[in-house]
Write a structure and sequence with these properties.
Layout: H1 8-17, H2 22-31, H3 36-45, H4 55-66, H5 75-93
């Protein structure tokens, strides 16, 4: 686990294993070193489009959340990332 944030590895694992959320799609794209437009194209090709105009903001907030460095103005998006982690994580545990 990460020394900075003990939840980082678990969040990444859950997002990557359950890649249907926009946060997961952005993280997958970030891991593949895709640019924003490429992330949007890949998501659309998978039948679950992501709004290309928001990908930069999602990338920033996913990375800041994983680094436990999110500024207060980004709290609503960080909350959404954590909610995704909690809902997908509990579903994975209950299988």
């Amino acid at each position: 686990m990460s020394d900075q944030n003990p939840f980082r590895d678990k969040i990444k694992q859950i997002l990557l294993q359950h890649g249907r959320s926009r946060y997961a799609k952005v993280l997958i794209g970030m891991n593949q070193n895709l640019i924003d437009a490429e992330i949007a194209v890949a998501a659309a090709a998978a039948g679950e489009p992501v709004n290309g105009d928001q990908i930069t903001e999602f990338c920033r907030n996913v990375q800041l959340t994983l680094d436990d460095k999110l500024a207060k103005h980004g709290a609503p998006i960080e909350c959404a990332v954590w909610k995704q982690h909690a809902s997908v994580g509990s579903a994975a545990v209950n299988r």
